[in-house]
Structure formats: structure tokens, C-alpha cells
Design goal:
- This protein folds into 2 domains: about 5-150, no CATH class; about 155-235, no CATH class.
- It has helices at about 5-20, 25-50, 60-70, 80-100, 110-125, 130-150, 155-180, 195-215, 220-225, 225-235.
- The model is unreliable at about 70-80 (pLDDT under 50).
- By secondary structure, it is an all-alpha fold.
- The protein contains 10 helices and no strands.
- The N and C termini lie far apart (about 70 Å).
């Protein structure tokens, strides 16, 4: 590659993709699209070698139309709809990531996907600087897709974390009540403002526990913990 500015741009894209695939679910989605495209491409190449008369269209032609589309070039078919192109966007970003990060753990873990990436790379490498908007669009759509379809908590993990938060909060409050009233420790029970202290600790427990198990609501839970903390401070005065 003889364009330092464009190489720097691709390195930045590779860094952005590296940030996206830090989440395991996101990495699986990249690999899913890449491996599927690689398998299809391998099947089409075999069909071509066998001179099948009604060969399915080469997926690379669609992919290349996404990469090198020109509005004023009638010979190049228009890019597919975003739902159809999304897999190719994933694949193009994964290819850029793996090529610019050689020696790192690759996204592609499939032989067919690696072969397809090798054949597609020249098209990505030869894109002109003024066509960077194509890759930017790919990154934008992929990032939006990951945000929309892979939330931080799936329904299953959300239910599990909610159950654990409720269970741990209940057990924590129960253990505290038993500790105060059954054990021979009278510092809280006989304190002049013991009721306020106990209520403050009981209210503080679910705020801390729920905030720990539910990162999505951590800001609000731990922010709400200020109230029982104020109750505790006032009770100690």
C-alpha cells in the first residue's frame, strides 16, 4: 500500500473494529457473517470449476458492487438493500481488521472465510481516499446493528441477574436482621437511634446489590444509595 494517509485510515478502522469485537457476542456475529460468506464462496467456486450451466451468482460480485459502486456508472449494479448488504459490511470490516492486525488473534477462524478475505482484500486496499465514506457507512451500519440486536443484557441474562439481585438482597437483609436480634450484639439494638440505623442499612443493601448485578441501572441504584447513607449519618449524629 503506497498511500500512508489511507493506511492510517484503515488502521483506525481496525482499531474501531477491535473495540467492537471486544464483546464476545459481537465477535461471534462477525465470525458468523464471515464464515457464511466464505462457505458460500467456496461452494460457488466448486460449481464454477465443474462448469455447472446454472451456477448461482458469485457473492463477490454483490460484495464488490457495495465497495466500488459509482452513481454515474451504469455498468455496475446498484448496491443491495441494507439488510442484504449488512453481512458484506460485517465481512469487509472483519477483513480490514484481520489484514491490518496480522499477528493478532483474527476474527476469521474459518479457512473458507480466510480465502475469501484474501481475494477481497485487493478491492479494499485499492479504494480511493474519496471512497472512504463506503467503509464509514459499513462501520455505521454494523455498529447500529450490534447496538440494536445485541444489547448488553439478553432476556435470559437479564432474568438471571434480576433473580440474583433479589435473592442476594433478601438474604443480606435477612442475615442483618438475624445478626441484630438473635446474636448477643446490642450496639445497634440498644442504640438511641437504632431504628434509624437499621432502616438505613436495610435500605442501603438492595441499592448496592441491585446496582452490582444490574449494570444498566447501576447509576440510578448507587445514586439512590445516597438517601439511606444520609439516614445513617443523621442517626449517628
Amino acid at each position: 500500500m503506497d498511500n500512508p494517509e489511507y493506511e492510517r485510515y484503515l488502521l483506525d478502522i481496525a482499531d474501531d473494529v477491535e473495540g467492537l469485537v471486544a464483546a464476545q457476542e459481537n465477535r461471534k456475529r462477525f465470525e458468523h457473517h464471515s464464515c457464511n460468506l466464505g462457505e458460500k464462496h467456496a461452494l460457488y467456486l466448486k460449481a464454477f470449476k465443474r462448469v455447472v450451466k446454472q451456477m448461482p451468482p458469485d457473492p463477490l460480485s454483490t460484495f464488490q458492487s457495495v465497495l466500488i459502486y459509482e452513481n454515474d456508472d451504469l455498468l455496475i449494479p446498484p448496491p443491495p438493500k441494507i439488510n442484504e448488504a449488512l453481512a458484506y459490511y460485517y465481512f469487509s470490516l472483519a477483513t480490514i481488521h484481520d489484514k491490518m492486525r496480522e499477528g493478532y488473534i483474527p476474527i476469521h477462524n474459518d479457512t473458507c472465510a480466510k480465502q475469501l478475505a484474501k481475494s477481497v482484500w485487493p478491492h479494499i486496499e485499492n479504494l480511493c481516499v474519496d471512497k472512504q465514506f463506503i467503509i464509514n457507512a459499513a462501520f455505521k451500519y454494523v455498529k447500529a446493528d450490534l447496538t440494536d440486536k445485541t444489547p448488553a443484557e439478553t432476556e435470559q441474562t437479564n432474568a438471571k441477574s434480576t433473580f440474583l439481585a433479589v435473592l442476594v438482597s433478601f438474604l443480606g437483609i435477612l442475615a442483618f436482621i438475624l445478626w441484630v436480634h438473635l446474636l448477643p450484639i446490642t450496639c445497634l439494638k440498644d442504640h438511641p437511634k437504632g431504628t434509624g440505623l437499621q432502616c438505613g442499612i436495610i435500605l442501603l443493601t438492595p441499592c448496592l446489590v441491585v446496582g452490582y448485578f444490574k449494570p444498566k441501572y447501576r447509576k440510578w441504584c448507587w445514586g439512590s444509595a445516597i438517601l439511606p447513607i444520609v439516614v445513617l449519618i443523621l442517626s449517628l449524629l
